[in-house]
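Let us work through a complete example step by step.
Step 1: write down the sequence.
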Amino acid sequence: MSSARLRLIALTTAIGALSSGGVSLPAQEWRTLEASRSLATAGNGDTLHVRLGYVAGKLALGAANRGTLYDLTVRYDADERRVKYSYDPSSRLLTVGGDSGFAKTFAIRHDHDDADRKGPSPSLALKVASGIPLDLSLRFSAADAVLDLSGLDVSRLSVEAAASGGRITFGTPNASSIPNAELRATAAGLEVAQLGNARVDTVRANATLGHIELDLGGDWTGRTALDLDAVLGVITVRVPGDVGVKVDASTTLGSVETPGFTARDGALYSDNWASAKRSVTIGGRAVLGRVEVRRSE
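Step 2: predict the structure and record it as tokens.
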């Protein structure tokens, strides 16, 4: 029998008629899903593959306690959504979904405003093991996401946000290098702090009617590349002053803002491009959008 524990607790809250107008609100059936697994029962392979989709609520991701492969807690209204969870030891694949289709983002009932709601609110908290490679594919919409990847070993990263606000933090140097990281914000705001610690070779970021902010602070050496696509959106890149920067991006009724850079041979260069010990090359396009490059002193 699997050592994974799975507990489903139904918390039923009946909302009666409003005394002021006698209007009845629908009852809410709040449930809590809890699941965890130890590293000792992780199964075959070295990498933990995480596929997560979440709609409407608070989303948190961080490091698990020592000896734990994953620890999951989901609180949700069963009248509004379904939550699916599975783990396959043979492939080390953890799948968590809660009506994750982006077309359902606006299908969630809004009978009452979250700001005025008393009692529970939807949330998903996932903690994953440090010290093993992590393949993370995260999709969320109409959510408030805090993804703290500090202390983890991320080998692959894909984050897709729609109609959401999200912050990703690499508070410590990543144990492995990430060949490619994919970031997408659609009508959303996505901020990545200390991206330099991630040790990413190439970052591909798309902001469509949204805003992505990339902070390249952190402990990194050598070269990295950013492939940016701002379509009716804005992508801001914040670069430490010692990093050399080359920008070669196209515009279609858009703009690329690089204060203090020098134009040469069809590209834009920072004044320390030739001498910098670490550097970033920025390409891509701005279509009715804007790419901003800001260097710190």
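Step 3: interpret the result. The chain has a mean pLDDT of 86.
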